[in-house]
Amino acid sequence: MTTQSASEKSSIWFANPDLAAMNAGGKNTALEALGIQITEIGPDYIRGTMPAEPRTFQPFGLVHGGCNVVLAETLGSVGANLVVDNSQYYCVGQEVNANHLRGVRSGTVTGTATLLHAGRTSQVWSIELRDDAGKLSCISRLTMAVVPIPKTSRG
């Protein structure tokens, strides 16, 4: 029996993701306002970061839970749209939940999104957020709707 390294595994993405284009798409959005960046795309995951600094803090000097959710939903949303043929479908969030496990006061929050389920009309993603020490700070689950683009709107 042979095993595949992570770089040899087949990818879940419909097309080859363009990291620069994804980050450019965040201009003038909540992503830019919060400093969220997509940093890595593996064969079956997407990773991004958000600074732990005053613009992402709540009044007690911890990363705001809502900012954690924005990072988590961003990563799952980007991933979901990379899995489908964008000439026929787009994906939008239906439900997101988050368990905030540990406060983050400085550094960077790094999130990793992995696909748990890819169905005909929905996807489910798991997103783990970690601090600079690698400690789990938040776990989130995101359900995405896979929406067909009306035939009259297709090119």
TrEMBL record:
NCBIfam families, per the entry: unchar_dom_1 (TIGR00369)
A Pfam family reported for this protein in Swiss-Prot or TrEMBL: 4HBT
UniProt xrefs under InterPro entries: HotDog_dom_sf, PAAI_dom, Thioestr_dom
Keywords: Hydrolase
Thioesterase domain location: 60-138
Protein name from the UniProt record: Hotdog fold thioesterase
Family under the similarity heading: Belongs to the thioesterase PaaI family.
